[in-house]
Amino acid sequence: MSNTLNHTSSRQIVRHYTHRQKRCKHLMQYFVSANGLFEL
């Protein structure tokens, strides 16, 4: 019982972590493109 609960919680954490990673990568690309525009 507790094993299945732990499994689902760990999956949620992994999903949350990957979501945060994608957001960080998106923000980095945004800042890089903004810097490129300013350099022009």
Number of helices: 1
Q: Give helix % range.
A: over 70%
Q: Could you give a short account of the major beta sheet?
A: none
Cα gyration radius (Å): 18 Å
Number of domains: 1
- Which stretches are low in confidence, meaning pLDDT under 50 for 5 or more residues running? none
- Principal-axes shape call: rod-shaped
Structural class: mainly alpha
Kindly estimate the percentage of residues that lie in beta strands according to DSSP.
under 5%
| Mean pLDDT reading | 83
> From N to C, what is the helix and strand string?
H
How many β-strands, per DSSP?
0
Please give the oligomerization state of what you see: single chain
User: What is the terminal-to-terminal distance?
Assistant: 60 Å
Short description:
This protein has 40 residues and is an all-alpha fold. Helix content is 95%, strand content 0%.
